[in-house]
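quick one
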Amino acid sequence: MGFLAIDVGNTRLKWALYDAPRPGATAQAHGVEFLDHVQRLADGAWSQLPEPTSMLGCVVAGDAVKRLIEEQMDAWELTPHWVVPGAEEAGLVNGYERPERLGADRWVAMVGARHHMLAQGAPRPIVLVMVGTAVTVEAIDAEGRFLGGLILPGHGIMLRALESGTAGLSVPTGEVQLFPTNTSDALTSGGTYAIAGAVERMWQHLRAHTGQEPACLMTGGAGWKMMPSMTRPFELVENLIFDGLLEIAARRFA
Ligand SMILES: Nc1ncnc2c1ncn2[C@@H]1O[C@H](COP(=O)(O)OP(=O)(O)O)[C@@H](O)[C@H]1O
Ligand SMILES: CC(C)(COP(=O)(O)O)[C@@H](O)C(=O)NCCC(=O)O
Ligand SMILES: [K+]
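structure w/ adenosine-5'-diphosphate:
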């Protein structure tokens, strides 16, 4: 019954082995690997696992990385399955012009977010922020329609872009300050408030569009960095992508 969930972003692969492909399943093991090191999985962390019977993942890191990861599963009987965003999934309707061009991680996280919100009470619109290598800000209405979303550079990309495009901006990481008075703090605060400001705008757009107060959810490896700087109360949910994969797997592998 073991179900392996895999989330491959542009920086890291996250995996978790659950006792079954269903929402609320228990994670028996989990781990993280930087993309440069995914070749270690078969002989490393995955060599210790009981053989999973099914696997579902989302990958935005490209086909070469995907193939490398599939090779790591060669010793197992299972067939690798990867989410391809379509017109609808698990109660969500995809408003993207070309649904298949939407990042699979965004789509899966939205499925997780929608079910997380429904478990808490009456349906509401959602602003979902995912802070990884890039930052995405999704708008979902109370009926589960994905209206559209923003893509921004993440903290690391913003800093590297400024470093490489200027002569005088190569400095250590600073702290978020209201009125930064050194270069490090100015860069760190600028990036953080760029993200917080974009999220605030999306919150306003969704509030105006739906006439309802949106629920605010945040996920992703660097979500914790953003939490203190948001203009609205956000709930940080560590594993929305895994929650989404469990929802989708329950429908596919039942
Ligand atoms: N221990 C950590 N290792 C790597 N990245 C981290 C760590 N803690 C926070 N981060 C931040 O999280 C981002 C990666 O988050 P993650 O969700 O794994 O991204 P992705 O899904 O794009 O691979 C990095 O850009 C970095 O800013
Ligand atoms: C926006 C992303 C780069 C985010 O990647 P991540 O930060 O999770 O590594 C990824 O979801 C992606 O490549 N999306 C495809 C383009 C789109 O969603 O429109
Ligand atoms: K991601």
